Amino acid sequence: MKKSTVLIVLVTFALSVVIVGIFGMRMMSYNTRIYVETIVPTRVYLNTGDTVEIKPREADTEYEVWINDYTEGLTLRMDYSLEPADATENDILAQITSKVDENDPVARLDGLTLHILRVNAGKSVTVRVNYRATDGGGANITVYFYIRNQQK
């Protein structure tokens, strides 16, 4: 081969390596999963049409909600956002983790909707609910619902 042919092949190879290095795409695996890192609660909606503010507690993953006016048949639904927003799976599972009397429960979960079954007059009830992402990344939060019945 001529020297010019070898030189042209080497220059073309060097330029292709530089061009791919600068403008090339980063290789990603075919089945990339983006896990939920944090669950951020925003508001709690009541079946009465009211919204209740969520207050953070000392721990980063704990929040509290105060409801001072219990009404018969009260249901709550917490609104939340996930970070990152483009997570592969964005399903959340809720579970009551406070002590529950199976024979006479105070609250019941139906999906993400919390039904408060009873609060005696002049008393208050605390329901602790754990919300966790189902993608296996381990993101979870605990929300303490304090419900007070001010009727006497």
Distance between the termini: 103 Å
Oligomer: single chain
Largest sheet: 5 strands, antiparallel
What gross morphology would you assign?
rod-shaped
Low-confidence stretches: none
Mean of the pLDDT scores?
A: 86
Walk across the major sheet and give the strand order.
2-1-5-8-7
Q: Report Rg.
A: 27 Å
Number of strands: 10
Q: Strand-residue fraction?
A: 35-45%
The helix-and-strand class reads mainly beta
Quick structural overview:
The chain has one helix spanning 3-23; strands at residues 38-46, 51-52, 55-56, 62-67, 75-83, 92-96, 107-110, 113-116, 124-133, 140-148.
Overview features:
rod-shaped; 1 helix; five-stranded mixed beta sheet; 152 residues; mainly beta; five-stranded antiparallel beta sheet
